[in-house]
Amino acid sequence: MIDWGTIIAGLLTLAIFTFLYGDNPIYRFAESLLIGVSIGYFLVITWQNTIVSLLIKPLVSDGRIGLIIPLGLGLLMLSRFSSRLSFLSRLPIAVLIGSGAGVAIPAMLDARTLRQIDATIAPLWTDGGLAIGTIVVVLGVLTTLAYFYFSRAQTGSLGRISQIGIYFLMVFFGTTFGYTVMSRMSTFIGRMEFLLVDFLRLTQ
Q1: Of 65, 100, 93, whose CA–CA distance to 77 is shortest?
Q2: pLDDT digits (tens, 9 = 90+) for 132-161
């Protein structure tokens, strides 16, 4: 039995790979199709899972009158399409940014600040002996902070310490770049496995 879904997905994958030879109509068609299908899928999911499930059904069926407030704010967003009434959209935008910041700031403060501070004040000596990892973390933090200390010339001992901080920064940027490359390679390997196994059936 012909699996048309697999065939279409394989052809579209090959169409995307044609970009390796340069920009061409086949690639532009596949790119436009991907964007159009993604937008359509996103709109359907948003309508069903957000507007219908979280707004219309609770408002109509359960009588949750308080949902009129987010409904009104959402409708005010549509005023952006009118040059005369576009100022009304400032209210829902302000609510969105304020509530988003209120949710994001504590989470980011905990994940990116407090946890980092906690790692630098961990005990240097534990029951198992000297905590080498903690010492490396503390050394990296102090030397990196010394590199960004611009109130005095980085010469002498401060210059040597800041040089060590540069090495820590290089390790960080290198591992970040390596992680990005490996994630892209993982996606590429997944696509190649799909082409060779599911689409071309070379292993069967």
Answers
A1: 93
A2: 888 898 899 999 999 998 888 888 899 999
